[in-house]
Amino acid sequence: MADYLPLTWSAWLNYMSHAADILITAIIIYYTLSLLKGTRAIAIFKGIVILVFLTAFAKLLNLTTLSWLLSAAWVVGMVAIVIVFQPELRFLLAKLGSGKVAGFLFRIKPDWINAIIETMETAQKKGWGALIVIELNMGMKNYTETGIKIDGEVSSELMLSIFNPAGPLHDGAVVIKGNKILAASCIMPLTMEEIASRILGTRHRAAVGISEVSDAWAIVLSEETSSISLARAGKLTRNISSEELRKELVALYRVKEFDTAP
Length: 262
What we know:
By secondary structure, this protein is of the alpha+beta class. The chain has 2 domains: 9-84, no CATH class; 103-253, 3-Layer(aba) Sandwich (YojJ-like (1), CATH 3.40.1700.10. The protein has helices at residues 9-36, 41-60, 64-84, 86-97, 111-126, 141-144, 156-163, 194-199, 202-213, 242-253, and strands at 130-134, 148-153, 173-177, 180-186, 217-221, 228-232, 235-240.
């Protein structure tokens, strides 16, 4: 029997390099699918997988015409994906580029959480509507520039004056970053999801829309039902209580102790 020579260091490094390549690729694919789970981008991903198999099949059997058609489909398809799924791509890149959610805000004194809760509770009693967008890691300058600059401390008095239907700024969203109100009456992108577009009002569609294209959280108070909803990562949690909202905000910023008094 022939003698087997031991693997050299270069051979071991070559094997390890291939293994690391496969592992990293698998992790990237898994993480990407996890972020896109539940969005319309999953359907296009399935279509891409089918195209990959068809392309490999055509190359294997040397089907010239089919290979040419599939090559053209790849060129056109990639351009169409970038155009049609621009919101999902922006959201994915924003998530990949951000660290821990709102890590830079962990040390901010959370008085503004109480201000948001008091605003929601008071507006509920008055039958007002409201939309509050909380900026996290991804900047929102292109959205705040559509509204009126405020640059003031977060307080329930200020927000209630903004959401008062008799005031000029009650339409649109209030954008908050940390304990600052950046702007009011801001225009947010509406979700293009077909089902959401049929059953949700403009405020709720705007809340879902901004959470689809950024890592922001959006709090909605319905003018019709006086119910509170919370939009995150393109998902809308409806009919939550003010205390449930408080717990979600505290959990977001990992605040251990705060004053619960209004």
